[in-house]
Write a structure and sequence with these properties.
2 domains, five-stranded antiparallel sheet, 111 residues, alpha+beta, SH3 type barrels
């Protein structure tokens, strides 16, 4: 059966050059950079903005909680806020549960 093997096959081609070791890590680095700019950085920015908003809360601000309750801030402590949702109904909630500040007069226009 050796007559089916040509003589050209006996002279194998020289081995191809191998890529540098860092070339295998390049796709992982590119993927991390993409994740950083599309996922990690925007989330950090949003968290920083929320923290600044919570630090600036003051009496009389109108806000919406993370659960969607609209009300007016009556008292601000270190960790808690007295939140008036209706005449005489005051909820005590954690400061970081304030989701968004609303423009003045929003509470009156929603009734």
């Amino acid at each position: 059966m050796s007559f089916f093997i040509s003589d050209a096959m006996a002279n194998a081609a020289p081995a191809a050059e191998q890529a540098p070791a860092w070339a295998g890590l390049l796709p992982m680095v590119i993927l991390f950079v993409i994740f950083y700019f599309l996922l990690i950085r925007p989330q950090q920015k949003k968290t920083k903005e929320h923290r600044q908003m919570v630090d600036t809360l003051s009496k009389g601000d109108e806000a919406v909680t993370a659960g969607g309750i609209l009300g007016k801030i009556r008292k601000v402590d270190d960790n808690f806020v007295d939140f008036e949702v209706a005449e005489g109904i005051i909820l005590v909630i954690q400061k970081h549960q304030i989701g968004q500040l609303m423009p003045k007069g929003t509470l009156k226009s929603s009734k």
